[in-house]
Amino acid sequence: MTEKQMKKKLKGELKPKRYQHTLNVVKSAEHLATRYSCDLEQARLGALLHDCAKNYSGEKLLSVSASAHLDIDDITRIEPQLLHGPVGAVVAREAYGITEDAILDAIHYHTTGRVGMSTLEKIIYLADFIEEDRNYPGVEQLRACAMEDLDRAMILAFSNTIRYIASIGGLIHPSTVDARNSLILGQIQEKIE
Predict the structure, then answer these.
(1) Are 103 and 92 in contact (CB under 8 A)?
(2) Looking at residue 33, which CATH number applies to its domain?
């Protein structure tokens, strides 16, 4: 499937605001991929398809997850929208013909993050946070940081997510906490060495 065909299919499946968000994420991902010497085509495709399952209902996300034999922990069972990344990777493979694991992983982990994220995964995660229509306290600082230090920007993004979810009394996925802590430990190790 060509990128043009993917866009046409996505435009028909996503709400107009979500489709515009997707195009904005592609633009942000291109900037970050150029800055961090990441494969531009992979960044474009990962960004384009990152929310391909976003409009699925909780029931459909759980159903596709079960059919694809995805692990569903207690938190995602209660908050099934967290599955739009893993399910999105399944949809990207099955409906859009994406076969590259790097792209599928970037889609899969763009919501919760994980320990040991690749540069591409970090780019898709951050591009989603900093696209031009995002407007929340600290977004300008995060945009600037993303162009200076990818890992520091990831820590800032994870911290913002954790702080926000805690403020509304939500469940914080352990993958997000573990990913943040792993990056901070890595920075501490660098300073020691």
Answers:
(1) yes
(2) 1.10.3210.10
- Enter the pTM of the model: 0.95
Number of domains in the chain: 1
50 in a domain, yes or no?
yes
DSSP 81: G
Q: What pLDDT, on the 0 to 100 scale, is given for residue 82? A: 96
Distances (CA, A) of 65 to 105, 107, 155, 181: 15, 14, 28, 27
Residue 148 lies in a domain: no
Structure tokens at 127: 């591009």
Domain that holds residue 66: 3-136
Query: Within 13 Å, how many C-alpha atoms sit on residue 159's CB side?
Result: 14
- Please give the distance of CA 59 from its chain centroid, rounded to a whole number: 21
